[in-house]
Amino acid sequence: CVKVIAETLASVPLPIYRRLPNGGKERATNHPLYRVLHDKPNSFQTAFDFKLMLQGHLSLRGNAYAHILPGPRGFADQLIPLHPDRVAVEKMADGTPRYKYREDNGTQVTYLQDEILHLRGMSDNGYTGLSTIAMMQDSIGLSLAAEGYGSRFFRQDARPGGVLQTAGKLSQQAAARIARDWTAIHAGYTNAHKVVVLDEGLSWQAVGMTSEDAQFLQTRQFQVTDIARGFRVPLFMIQETEKQTSWGTGIEQLGIAFIASTMMTWFRPWEQPINA
User: From CA 238, how far away is CA 260, in angstroms rounded?
Assistant: First the structure.
């Protein structure tokens, strides 16, 4: 879900427009911020890389930060991304935020509001966004537990695919011989569908999926839907096509619905802080 949202937003160009007296608009390509936002926000990232990274931070943690660095192109010559886990936001006496950032070497740097581009998601205090992961921790925790169980199930499961049974009593040597011969003849995909000849009064009984196994698979499918719901991502966008969508017919309508219901809620947290 994060990848879909971040890659979609990063693919959308971020130009600056100049409003015209007749009510129209034109691209302000000579504006000092145009190349910063549209082409190359800093010396080591393209605009796509920058937007992809910050939207990933924003989708997961509810906050994304960039240091506004002055230089030859003006007061915002470069936008240097800051890792949100290293940023602490404080409320100053006048109500403005102050940002304390821990550098790679452990030193702490303090930035004022006009030095930071701060993108935030839904907030309960007006200063920092709420972490999507924290809000969905129960759903994600259940998914991780189910995934871990599934991994251990297939890696360690000792339950056989079937059993050879007989009404008589086999000696230890006979049982070992039958098991060895059966494995040698029928194990592996190259031996699939070979004719089975049973002696010693043996019969084959397949062991099918239990009700617990079926419930586990249903849990995994439910968790996909539950996490997609938290990110407002339609199931078809994450290749989950088992359930029919109610958005209408045709991929065009599905795409329009995705932009209107999901991406517009992420475009605004970019546009308005940039304008501010």
Answer: 17
The CA distance from 263 to 6, in Å, is 10
| E-only strand ranges, 5-122 | 17-19, 25-27, 63-71, 74-82, 87-91, 97-102, 108-112, 116-120
Given the structure tokens 């995909």, which residue do they identify?
A: 189
Total-model pTM: 0.71
- One-letter amino acid at 178 equals I
Asked if residue 49 lies in contact with residue 58, where contact means CB atoms within 8 angstroms, the answer is no
Question: Quick one: pLDDT at residue 19?
Answer: 95
Q: What is the mean pLDDT of residues 165-176?
A: 77
At residue 18 the predicted structure's pLDDT band, cuts being 50, 70 and 90, is: very high
The residues near 186 (Cβ < 8 Å, ≥ 6 apart) are 194, 196
Q: How far apart are CA 66 and CA 53, in angstroms?
A: 11
